[in-house]
Amino acid sequence: MMTPEMLTGLSTDHLVTLAGNHRLQFNATKAFLAMQKDAAKAGFKLQPASSFRDFTRQQTIWNEKFRGQRPVLDDHNQPLNISAMGEGELCEAILRWSALPGASRHHWGTELDVYDPFLLPQGKKLLLEPWEYEDGGYFEPLTHWLTENMSHYDFYRPYTRHDAGVAYEPWHISYWPISHEAERLFDGNVLLNAWQGRDIAGIDWLRNNLSYLFEKYIKIAD
Prior knowledge:
This protein has 222 residues and is an alpha+beta fold. It contains ten helices and six strands; from the N terminus they run H-E-E-H-E-H-H-E-H-H-E-E-H-H-H-H. The chain has one domain: Muramoyl-pentapeptide Carboxypeptidase, domain 2. GO terms for molecular function: peptidase activity. It comes from Xenorhabdus khoisanae.
């Protein structure tokens, strides 16, 4: 069973090396490697762009966005002017694209952001924006292959709705046999305990509105 530390990115005891600096849980690693092998037979070089991310990394992303040291993007991937935003508006703008520290699914060792470097045009940088994966985008063929095949390896996309709290992420896949259990175990108390004694920008507003934030940005709709 996953511990609170594993759920919140404060432990790496549940992880094994996938490739390079990428880490996942053992069964998720086996499943991804099997899918990667079959993707290669179909002509794709399926690669992780991101996998496990620890609490400290997510904390840095969050705090830099809150404090204006990193851009906060709108639904059209354009930088927002956060100078006139109140705390609540700013927190929700960040949550559209970035999880709270301790609440990222990437803490669990079940999540990957994937792409095919051979489909990325020379000189172009991977942005992880929806248009890259949609019709006419660089990775459209990979998107279709994953849609048709990833369930055979127990992967699915958790963020598929444009109208949900979290933005549509066609690059993000999750290993369901473990992630659905992590969803069951993860709650507000686990998150609040992970925040104890740590620098979390906007923490007072976040604490006061945590139930609402859980429903809109953390809990995945069935």
